[in-house]
Amino acid sequence: MATTADIKNGLCIKFNDKLYQIIEFQHVKPGKGPAFVRTKMRQIETGKVLDNTFSAGHKIDPVRIENREYQYLYQEGSEYVFMNNETYEQVNIPSKMIEKPLFLEEGMICNILFHAEEETPLVVELPMYIISEVTYTEPGVKGDTATNSMKAATIATGAEVKVPLFIDNGEIIKIDTRTGVYVERVKNK
């Protein structure tokens, strides 16, 4: 068991039977009364952020997690199959553990957080940006670059994103996987 003195950014703890990662913390020693630690924690399974205050010296239960790189192979029913490129071990991940599974492309390298003691996967983190081809969108109109109007477009993975009016079928675009927002057009090679 650890105490609040061991709290640091990135530490994972078990709190109310759920796993949380410390995003930020602050030790507070008021002029009157006992010291305490104010924390902001993100629940690993859902991503929800929780503000919590621990009294100084409070016992916490740290959990060891590991971040491992895996390559996405294919979808099998409602599960996604990933492979460790070093050991060639394959693991099936349910879709609920992937925040935006529609952005997965075959061969994509993803980070998977594992509970180190139990060797169970907790969550799949996609790369921050993906580059994909627009497979379908309404035709663009020349000169539509001045406004901030957006239209729907389908990319090669099957996901639908909003793109500027000047984007056409077959163009390569960069997308932020955290928000699902178009970032920029990528020049063809």
Q: What order do the helices and strands follow?
A: EEEEEEEEEEEEEEEE
Please tell me the CATH architecture of the largest domain by its name. Roll
Helix-strand makeup class: mainly beta
Proportion of beta-strand residues: over 45%
User: Quick one: how many beta strands?
Assistant: 16
The low-confidence parts are none
Q: How far apart are the first and last residues' alpha carbons, in Å?
A: 55 Å
CATH class of the largest domain: Mainly Beta
Number of domains: 3
Measured on Cα atoms, how large is the radius of gyration?
22 Å
Instruction: Give me the CATH fold name of the largest domain.
Output: SH3 type barrels
Tertiary shape? flat
Largest sheet: 6 strands, antiparallel
Please report the number of helical segments.
Answer: 0
Strand order of the largest sheet: 1-6-2-3-4-5
Level of helix content? Answer: under 10%
Tell me, rounded to a whole number, the average pLDDT.
88
Characterization of the model:
17% of the residues are buried. The strands form three sheets. Strands 1-6-2-3-4-5 form a six-stranded antiparallel beta sheet, with no helix packed on it. The model has no long low-confidence stretch (mean pLDDT 88). The chain has three domains: 2-63, Roll (SH3 type barrels); 65-125, OB fold (Dihydrolipoamide Acetyltransferase, E2P); 129-186, Nucleic acid-binding proteins (OB fold (Dihydrolipoamide Acetyltransferase, E2P)). The protein has no helices and 16 strands. It has strands spanning 2-3, 12-15, 18-28, 36-43, 49-55, 59-63, 65-76, 79-83, 90-94, 109-115, 120-125, 129-137, 150-155, 160-164, 172-176, 181-186. The chain is mainly β.
